[in-house]
Amino acid sequence: MLNIDSPKTTAALQLGEIYVTLAIEVILAVLIGLGLVAIGLDGAAWISGGIAAGAIVFSSYRIQGFDSLQPNRNARKAGQLLVGLTIGLSLQHSNLNVLSSQLLIFLGLPLFLMLSGVAIGSIYSRFEKIDLLSALLATTPGNIGVMASIAADYSKNTALVSLVQLMRFTTVIFVIPIIANVAVDRSTDNAVAAVVQKIVAVSWFDLCIACLLVAIALLAVYLGNKLKIPMAAFLGAIAVGLLFDAFLLVFPVSIDFQLPTFFNLIGQVLLGVTIGEYWGINPRLSSATIIRSLLPVVLMVLTAFLAALLIQRLTGWDWLTCVLVTAPGGSPEMIWIALTLHQDTDIVTAAHVIRLLTINLSLPLLLAIVPTINAETRH
Question: pTM of the prediction?
């Protein structure tokens, strides 16, 4: 007889609830994504669909009194793996040497964005009348979950940090694709039918290769986590894709392989779902607090456009490429938009990977400096 009160049974029920919830979110996200594709917003249709689905499902659960659910971080890691693998397979080794000539730009950009983030955080701290660390965690363009968890660990204003990060991320995810789709002429005739055709038209050979690469990427992610590499799921998958391309260059194997569309679609949906889940569980804040939180978001976006203008003047790169390089959104999402719209994926990838590493590696320094600043200010 099944004992429903046993720990093992409770854990199994909770796991089943997680999978059922994720399945509902994915189905809803695909339907919303198809609607966005139909109206021509295919640059980030599946990511946006995931955000909407996650928010709808978790908000519904909260209304029904289910407050124990938390954002599914494993789903986001799976999304990062699939999108990272696609990006790695799409990068051209012949272009990587060209990127070294712009190394100063790639190193200077995260420094500029971080200094701007500190300035914006300082302004927001005074404007919102909160402590400096909470403000900086809210305005640093990093991972939402990481920033919120750090705020919780240091007993800071976690709800406000999560809100500003969510608004920053969601604003960029929705605004940049609109700009991109305006800048690039794209036909919307039979767009949905074309997507369905790409999903169905996959050979068994491609499917087997894709599963093998996903398995290798999972191993790379496991090793990356052991080595404490930031965003191991994303960066490890990119590395696997690059190594596979290098393998094809070394050995005379005539394979022009790209990850099947179905894997790409699911990867993008999973990237968006977790962000939507954060919206669904975000505590209810006053309308005045929400309106004031727009200030740092607007300043971050304006700073990004200023950086894009400077980079375009220095490099002569395409304007849309510069915007994707400097956009303070999720790195996987911005790189994917560049890939979808046939922009300079190599440039956008290099910029965001360096930005990711710089921000994550500098967080310990930020956490060490801020208490000192606060102590000196009190004296």
Answer: 0.72
